[in-house]
Amino acid sequence: MIPLDYWLMRTLRRATPQRAVDLLLDRGIYLKPGADTSEPARVAREYAERVAAHGLSLRGKTVCVVGYGGSVGIGLQLLEQGAATVVLQDPFASTRRARDRSLDPALRDKYGPDRLVLVHEQLDAWARRHPATVDVIVSNSVLEHVADVPGVVAACAALTAPGGLNIHLVDLRDHYFKYPFEMLCYSEPTWRRWLNASNNLNRWRLPDHERAFRAAFAHVDVTVVEHLRDEFRRARPRIRPEFLTGDESIDAATGLRIEAR
C-alpha cells in the first residue's frame, strides 16, 4: 500500500523554496543537517580514527571535505585533530550563519584563512587546477545526493596525492527516514517528476557506488555499517527490480563506508 504521508511530505519538500530549506537547515528546524554540520567534533574524531586504522595520521596533512554543508565547524575540528590545511568544498551549500555563530569563538580565532580554504566550485574544476595535492579526502552523506557520482569519484582520485586516502560515508536510506526503502518503489519518471526534491537523492545502491570507486582507485574497501533487514523485508514486495540483487546483505544495506587509495 502506498503511504499517503510519504507522498505528502515528499511533495511538500519538493515545493519548498531553497531559501526556506537553507533557513530550516541552518537552525535545525524540522530538516536535520548532516553530521558534519550537526556533530563536527564527533565526525572529525571518527575520521581521524579511520585514518589511523590505515597506519596514517592527519597531523600535518591537507584534508578535503567534499560537500561540507556550509558550516566551517568540521574544518575547525579537523584542524584540531592535527590537519595542516583543510579544504571545505561545496558548490551548493549556503553559509550556515547560525551554526557558525554557535561555534567556540576561541576555536574560530585559532586558525587563519590560510589553513581553512573554502571552495565553492565543482570538485572536478578544482581538481584539474590542484591535482594530487590532498592527502585525505572525506565526505559524509554526500554521494547519495550527487547527480554525477562517477565524475565526483574520478575528481577525488585526481585530487588525491600519492599514498593518500579517501573515506566516504554513504547513507542509502530514503531521507524521509520513516520509510527507508520507499524511494526504491517508484519508476524513474515518477521519482523525477513528483518526488525527488532539491537535495536530489540519486537512489544509487551499494553495487553502483562500488563500481564507481573501483573504476577510479586501485584499492577499494566497501564496508556495510548498517542494515535495516526488517524494514527491507516489509518493503521488498514493492521495490522495483532494478534496485534488487537478490542478496539481502546487499539490498538491505543502508549505510556504507567506502575507503579508497
In short:
This protein is of the alpha/beta class and 261 residues long.
Labels describing this entry:
about 260 residues; alpha/beta; Rossmann fold; 13 helices; 7 strands; about 40% helix; globular
Tell me about this structure:
- Helix content is 41%, strand content 19%.
- By secondary structure, the protein is α/β, with parallel strands linked by helices.
- It has one domain (4-260): Vaccinia Virus protein VP39 (Rossmann fold, 3-Layer(aba) Sandwich), CATH 3.40.50.
- A 7-stranded mixed β-sheet has the order 3-2-1-4-5-7-6, with helices on both faces.
- Strand 4 (134-140), helix 9 and strand 5 (160-171) form a beta-alpha-beta unit.
What is the number of independent domains?
1
Determine the N-to-C terminus distance. 44 Å
Pairing-aware structural class of the strands and helices? Answer: alpha/beta
How many DSSP H or I helices?
A: 13
Write down the oligomeric state: single chain
Rg over CA atoms, rounded to whole Å, is 18 Å
